[in-house]
Amino acid sequence: xxxxxxxxxxxxxxxxxxxxxxxxxxxxxxxxxxxxxxxxxxxxxxxxxxxxxxxxxxxxxxxxxxxxxxxxxxxxxxxxxxxxxxxxxxxxxxxx
Length: 96
Prior knowledge:
Elements: H1 6-9, H2 22-27, E1 34-37, E2 43-45, H3 53-61, E3 65-68, E4 76-78, E5 83-85, H4 91-94
Antiparallel strand pairs: 1-2, 1-3, 3-4, 4-5
């Protein structure tokens, strides 16, 4: 099994609150890629986007895990532990 952390193993799967970056949509701005918070469903733009709303959401809320919100991408990132995984752990791995 790849490197894992407790935050990724315990991450939820909330519905996305928007189909684009919440803050950029309100501002009328654009983004490069999207990330979905696995604590609350916030959708924010990536660090390649000028506004970096996903990272700002982490700093404001301490919700540790995001998942790519791009079609065909399943990877997760834990901000707190700086752990990247290519895909969500299986149910058996999450029960550890």
